Amino acid sequence: xxxxxxxxxxxxxxxxxxxxxxxxxxxxxxxxxxxxxxxxxxxxxxxxxxxxxxxxxxxxxxxxxxxxxxxxxxxxxxxxxxxxxxxxxxxxxxxxxxxxxxxxxxxxxxxxxxxxxxxxxxxxxxxxxxxxxxxxxxxxxxxxxxxxxxxxxxxxxxxxxxxxxxxxxxxxxxxxxxxxxxxxxxxxxxxxxxxxxxxxxxxxxxxxxxxxxxxxxxxxxxxxxxxxxxxxxxxxxxxxxxxxxxxxxxxxxxxxxxxxxxxxxxxxxxxxxxxxxxxxxxxxxxxxxxxxxxxxxxxxxxxxxxxxxxxxxxxxxxxxxxxxxxxxx
Length: 329
Fold this sequence. Notes:
The protein is of the alpha+beta class. Helices cover 50% and strands 16% of the residues.
């Protein structure tokens, strides 16, 4: 498989399971960091000329034979009609991360095209679109899905490098900063592991010149980060025993954590019930792996873990099915 660039690898992680049709807060944060990742990968590949504390890049960069389309897309929004740009490390990252939504959408399309061409990203119906209330309302929802093998390779690669002792490469340092600025650290590391990650941040800041320059730069918007952190907290709360029980009884609190899929019949046999639901999920284009069978199966759906619990919606005519509730390690 072709080796991915820094920006492509980060895109595999940051855009997985995000809305592909609309500019949500989480996707805007991811795209800003993807634009910054383009600057950082060009920096690591020595495209810039350093002059004292300034990084210089000339329009000649567009004529280089190895320049990639998504790199061109970010740079053209920065250069506009200028022949040369010069600024500090923080200035370049700040400029890249403040592109308009229209420009971010163009960056999104070009980098997604590069990954779709490698069969590493695709658009699929959102899992929530399988929910009974959404299917009956005929609501279209789509999201990005990363290739599961590549997603695991990217995330496990970062985890192993950070959690094991040893010197981190410049690319590892950049990846950690991008995960921090996109508020994705908690999606890869457990709460306990985040303590070790913080120690690694401090170690790198003391020992690496790149880390010292990079870790002092912040491109995230506090308001957006607060929104994403709240949504993440709500999802995590709904994954606790208390939250799971609460959301099971009141699924409207967090729909994405409690998806109800009706079955064609009231199956008393758990295997038959699961078989019917798997048929529905596969029919919608979802990748499903059964990790555990039994009365409450554990499923991996599009890189996310869910428990499948038998449930019914009580009304004039009871509707039987399975409720998928998010499972957190």
